[in-house]
Structures are given as C-alpha cells and as structure tokens.
Amino acid sequence: MTTPPKSPPPDPRLFNEDLAPAPERTWGTYSIFALWMSDTHAISNYAFASSLFVLGLPAWEVFVALLAGITIVYGLMNRMGHAGHRTGVPYPVLARASWGVYGANIPALLRAIMAVAWYGIQTWLASTAVVLLTLQLAPGLDAYHHNSILGLSTLGWVAFLVMWGLQAVLLTRGMEFIRKVQDFATGPVVWLVVLALAVYLVVKAGGDISLTRSLTGLSGSAQVEQSLIAVSLTVATFLTLVLNYADFARFTPDHRSYRRGNLIGLPVNFTAFAVVAVLVTAGTISVFGEAIYDPVKVIQKIDNPVVTVIGALAFIVATIGINVVANFVSPAYDFANLAPKYLNFKRGGMITALLAIVVMPWKLYSSALVIQYFLGALGAFLGPLVAILLVDYHLVRRGRIDVDALFSADARGAYYYRRGYNPKAAAAFLPAAAVCAALALVPALDVVAPFSWIVGMGLAGALYALLSHRERAAAGAAPIPDEIIASQVSAAAAEASTMPEAARPLIPPVPVEGS
C-alpha cells in the first residue's frame, strides 16, 4: 500500500491555528439556532418589522413579506454553509479559492471595514441604554451627562468604555466561549422580555388587535410595492452574514446541524419574532393611543422601575449578541488573514475593538452623509462579493477545493494565479460593484435602490461564471460532494494545538518565485 505524498507545509504568511481548518466541531443545531437568535433579536429587526406595520401594511402581509425574504436568506446561508462545513476554514481563507491567496484580503478588508464601523455604532447604541439605566437608578449622576468630551459626556464615555470592556472580555476568549455565551444568554433572554411585553399589552388591550387592517389605508398596489421592498431589504440586511457564514458553519459536525439550525433560527424564529414585534406595536395603539415601534420606549411607557431595569438589561445583552455575531467574528478573522504570522483571532479581535473607539461611532451615526454614502456604498459591494464566492464554489469548482493549497504561496499552487491575485474575480467584481453602488446611492434611482443587491449579485455571478468557463468545463457537471475535505493542514494544526506553545514546531516558509 503506497503512502499518499505529503503536501508542502503551510506558508506562515498564510497560516495560523485560527485560520486552519477547524480541529473541533462543536456547533450543533442548537448553537446555530442560538447564533440566529443573537442576531435577529435586535432592536433594529424589531423596529423594521414594526415600522412596516405602522407604514400601513396589514400584519399578515408583514409576516408574509418577512417570511419570503428570510426564506431566501435561509437558502443562501445553506449554500455558503456547505462550503464552510466541508472546508472547515473561515471566510477570508475560503475567499482565496476565488480571489487568490493574497487577493482574498480585498474582500476581507471590505467586510472588515464595514464591521468595524457597525461594531462601534452598536457598542455606542448599547452604551446609551446603559446611560438611561444609570440615570434611572442614580438620578444624581445627571450632572455628568451635560458636558462634551469629543462629542460624548463624561457619563457617556464611562458607559461606552464599560460596554467596550465587557465585550472585549467576552470576545477575546475565543469562538468556543462565544458559543457557550450565546447558547444560554444573548439569544433566549430577549425572547422572554418581548414575549412578556406582548402578553402584557394584549391583555391590557383586551384582545382588541387587528391583524388584517391597514393603519394608514394603503392601496392594494402600494401594499404590493412595500411588501416587495420589505422582502428585498430583509435579504440585503443579512448579506453581511451570508458572506462570512463559513466562519460559523466550519464548526458544525455535519450538514444537518447548520441546515436545521438555519431553518429554526431564520424562517421560524425570525418570523415569530416579527409576529411578536407587530403584536406589541399593535398593542401600544390600543393601550397608549399611539404606535410605538421602539421596544425601549415601550418599556419606558409602562413606567415601572423594575420593568425599566429588566428591559434595559435585556436589550443591552441583545446588542452584545448581535455585535458578536455580525460585527466582531468576521473582522477578527479578516485582520488575522492580513498577517497570520503575527495576528491570530484574538489579536485581530482587539484591533477591531480598538478601531471601534478610534472611529468615534457616535459621530459616524449622527452623520446622514456618512451612513448613506460610506456605509451605504460598502453595503452595495456585498452582493457581488457573495455571488463570486457562491458561483466559484458551487458552479465553477463543483465543490472541489484543495484545502491545503489555500495555505500555499507556491507560484505553482492552485490558487496563486498571478502573483497571488485572481484577475477574473476583480474583473467580475469591479463593474458589478460600480453598478450596484450607483443604483444604491444616486438619488434619481431611489425607486430601484432597495433592489440594487439583486443586480449586483446577478451581474457579478454571471461575469465570473463567464470568465471562468474553462474551469467550469474542467469541473464538469458532477454532483457536489458532501464529505468534509481531508487536509494535512488540519491534522497538523490539531496536533500543534495540543502542544505547549514553547514546544510547537516552527513552520518553514515555502519558497516563492521572485522572493
């Protein structure tokens, strides 16, 4: 029996243990479900569902629109999850197959920049809840809330740094610790509070809540238009996580884990959360005489100190949850991918956290220009990036990925292309991103702006498939395999992770032409 030839050792410019294929796979169905609870139980998602109802869509149309949108998201997550599960690598490493071993830093940095901005914004928004909670418990501290130091009061700075520190402690403990926290805290706690609000308001309203009436009397055609926009915006909101879903699916033990977790956590849980949000909003009309679609304001309206404290704590926890899932894990891997020899997941995470202070998120969020043009333009890039990754894995390669070659800087390597960059990915991305950004940002095109991601995905996917026709022909039409891809890099990383750090072997670099 012949022994299969050994692959060259991974290049330290492309490898560390955090970027290597996952040596342990402990994220079962419940952990993936809890991941989605942490992400979907956000004030922004609650307000989005409620605002559709306040805008004039009958409650049942809100549910149908959101269910349709999140079902599309569910399909995209499963497609990206298939790649993440089989390869066991995080998003920036998976992107090396389509962008090149060095070119993958381009999409990774675009994702990281957006995540850093929103990580800071979400941390600051959570800190405003801390300020409200502090003033509720200690009104005498109000004197420290009226000065300004770089745009924040003394109390605001203390609250922001407290939230920043709490998250830093959580986030630098690693992915397994994050899994345990979200399993038992960040996901379930918000459900309890929102369900309690719904029961309280429905009882107070005496059951006088209509699920079929339009609050504003929207015409039938206007309802159809708003429903389609709601479907599209639901998908657009989740494209960030579609892009880096491999960061989580890589830890699942089998395909059923992420598929079932996605099913329960997205179509089922997201729609159920929307139902409760609309019920609460409808209840506020009967009980308070006005539609309130901010749950924090609903809690304040109840005017009970105990309810205020419990509610504020719950939504602080919820904000931490969405920050972890949507805005921390990805940039931690993305920054680590820039210089794996020096940056691991924890150091990449600390860079994310420090940059979140430097960008002064309260100034970003207060500027409509920044939100619309900077973050809006970056968001327009997500559709093309998602399309290139999915088309490369499912259509061009038919799931045939050489995982070990993802860590090789050899000029003859499968993913080295031209000096480590794949010009085909750039040629597909740039025109698609330009069109997508124009549709999203040019005022004259406001009507189609909510659907810009569809155009971006379609154009980038078609261009990449066309440019990669030779690779598609070579892959043929064979079924995409389901088994986890064997990797010598994975075995080496698992072995090294059990050794004391001082005893771990140094991995020599692979020679590269021209270096």
Automatic annotation (TrEMBL):
Localization: Membrane
Gene Ontology cellular component terms for the protein in this record: plasma membrane
Superkingdom of origin organism: Bacteria
Matches recorded under CDD domains: SLC-NCS1sbd_u1 (cd11555)
Family matches, as InterPro entries: Pur-cyt_permease, Uracil/uridine/allantoin_perm
First and last residue of the signal peptide: none
Keywords attached to this entry: Membrane, Transmembrane, Transmembrane helix
Membrane topology listed for this record: Multi-pass membrane protein
Membrane-traversing stretches: 46-76, 116-137, 149-172, 184-207, 227-246, 266-289, 309-329, 349-365, 371-391, 425-445, 451-467
Gene Ontology molecular functions: nucleobase transmembrane transporter activity
Similarity comment: family membership: Belongs to the purine-cytosine permease (2.A.39) family.
Protein name per the record: NCS1 family nucleobase:cation symporter-1
Biological source species: Streptomyces caniferus
